[in-house]
Amino acid sequence: MSVQIDLSNKTALVMGVANGRSLGWAIAEQLLTAGCRVGFSYQGERLKGELDKLLKDREGVWTQQADATSEEDLSALFARTKEEFGGLDYLVHAIAYAPRNAMEGRFVDTTPEDWNTSLHVSAYSLVAICRHAEPLFREGSSVVSLTYHASQQVVPKYNVMGVAKAALEAATRYLAADFGSREIRINTISAGPMRTIAARSIPGFGGLYDKGARNAAFGRNATSQEVGKLALFLLSDLGSGVTGQTMYVDAGLSIMTVKED
Ligand code: NAP
């Protein structure tokens, strides 16, 4: 079910759509359905074909390559955003990465290189992106990113990614304070486990997903469409007054003690 909301005079930039299962795509679909004009950035040419396929019959969309850790790419991306839209109402950060070996062993063995890469891509990029976007933001502009409960509790194998998500959540609060005087809102959505490319690269994700479905209050995992709907609420004026928050959409998984292993 899609929510009836008119965003036909609004503009959005969605960063981090790898394919139709991406949480960034679930959010983009809600924005497009609401009539929003949407630009997309992708990291590398490798997955551009997937994005092009998703956007084939969509009007008024555009795409641009941008590695979220490259100042040069971000400058070019926001120059393009200015050229296409003039200003920016909504920004979606759906980007995370940790080297696989950092998620296989013990957390204590995390190398400085893996720590820096993971924190840079998955947390600092939100700060850099907001700085680049600032001149384009309007009063009432809104940013959402995606986080995960491993920031709050130890989830086996998440290791440095759990730390990166904790940093992302804290950065959300500091950015919300910086931008608050213009009533620009920054929030992060804590999603339950969803089958995406990024998730599949986490060792043991299949077991975690199945256990999540058994243990959640709903007896199932949340869906990417539910993430999209919460994002639509937070991005649009429905979420006015909400900033600096980590909001859960996990079918009630994080509130439960473990019923079953
Ligand atoms: P996804 O479809 O694989 O999306 C992750 C995106 O991040 C990809 O488009 C990837 O691009 C991009 N990315 C990685 N490094 C980048 C960089 N340096 N610059 C620009 N883009 C980069 O997986 P997803 O699960 O939807 O992930 C989206 C967000 O949701 C992430 O923050 C993730 O941690 C969060 N999340 C996911 C779950 C879950 O269970 N799936 C739960 C909670 C939160 P490439 O494909 O080109 O590398």
TrEMBL record:
Pathway: Lipid metabolism. It catalyses: a 2,3-saturated acyl-[ACP] + NAD(+) = a (2E)-enoyl-[ACP] + NADH + H(+). The keyword Lipid biosynthesis applies. CDD domains: ENR_SDR. The active site is at 148 (proton acceptor), 158 (proton acceptor). Coiled coil: none annotated. Pfam families: adh_short_C2 (PF13561). The keyword Cell membrane does not apply. NAD(+) binds at residues 16, 43, 95, 165. InterPro entries: Enoyl-ACP_Rdtase_NADH (IPR014358), NAD(P)-bd_dom_sf (IPR036291), SDR_fam (IPR002347). Substrate binds at residue 98. GO terms for biological process: fatty acid biosynthetic process. Keywords: Fatty acid biosynthesis, Fatty acid metabolism, Lipid biosynthesis, Lipid metabolism, NAD, Oxidoreductase. Its EC number is 1.3.1.9. Belongs to the short-chain dehydrogenases/reductases (SDR) family. FabI subfamily. PANTHER family: ENOYL-[ACYL-CARRIER-PROTEIN] REDUCTASE, ENOYL-[ACYL-CARRIER-PROTEIN] REDUCTASE [NADH], CHLOROPLASTIC. This is Enoyl-[acyl-carrier-protein] reductase [NADH].
